[in-house]
Design brief:
This protein is α/β, with parallel strands linked by helices. It has helices spanning 2-7, 21-32, 39-52, 60-69, 99-108, 112-123, 138-142, 156-169, 176-192, 214-227, and strands at residues 10-14, 35-38, 72-75, 84-87, 90-91, 131-135, 148-153, 205-208. It has one domain: Rossmann fold, CATH 3.40.50.300. The strands form two sheets. The protein has a five-stranded parallel sheet. It has a three-stranded antiparallel sheet with strand order 3-4-5, covered by helices on one side. α8 (156-169) crosses α9 (176-192). The radius of gyration is 17 Å and the shape is globular. The model is unreliable at 1-5 (pLDDT under 50). Bound molecules: 2'-deoxycytidine-5'-monophosphate. 2'-deoxycytidine-5'-monophosphate (DC) binds at residues 17, 39-40, 43-44, 102, 105-106, 109, 135-137, 186, 190.
Length: 236
Amino acid sequence: MVEAQDKTPVLTVDGPGGSGKGTVARITAARLGWHFLDSGALYRLLALAAEKRGLSLDEAAPLAGLAKGLDVRFQGGEDGSEPAVWLDDEDVTDAIRTEACGSSASRVAALPAVRQALLARQRDFRQPPGLVADGRDMGTVVFPDAPAKVFLDASPEERASRRHKQLKEKGMDASLRDLVLEIAERDARDRARSASPLKPADDAVVIDTTHMSIDAVVAKVVALLAGAGFQDRMGP
Ligand code: DC
């Protein structure tokens, strides 16, 4: 089983919030017919579950325990749309997408015990015919042996403006000025933490998406995969 899983190809898509990685990873997975892991959603779900239970966001042991038993379900999304997300049989698709939840996720994600507790759950997503894994440490820690890795980045202004657009589309209130500050704060925490900090893997291809459309980034990523010899593992 382990051997079969190890041979399953993984494309890791890492980068900061607003770099386009979530959308690009989802669409690429749908195009290839591969599975999709939104690892950020797991940290967001943990933060939400902790808040619902009145747990402090800084206490590693209870949070790690909660992370191990988290009852989560992703539903749909095979066509590249955003999957519905369930926590304890409650639909939390929108609840986990607020900036407040993202910021809480970044706090719990700084705790090494929490990251360790979520490791096996993330690796379980590696199933044939392949996996596209979206996050901060997919290429460096969770799937270091992935045969294809990209790291997407964009200017801070562009990232804040994309996040602003995304939240508005979901009908959520957001001020662009607040978002610039929140994104800067979250990035600084994600990059500076000692456990699995946000950084490109040594063997990742870094793509600056500031002036690129989603389609152009997806095309580039798919071309990279084809160049890495995965034509036979890709869908039609
Ligand atoms: O990608 P996202 O915005 O949904 O992630 C929310 C937070 O979760 C992010 O600020 C840092 C954390 N995270 C992480 O530490 N490692 C990952 N692989 C994914 C997310």
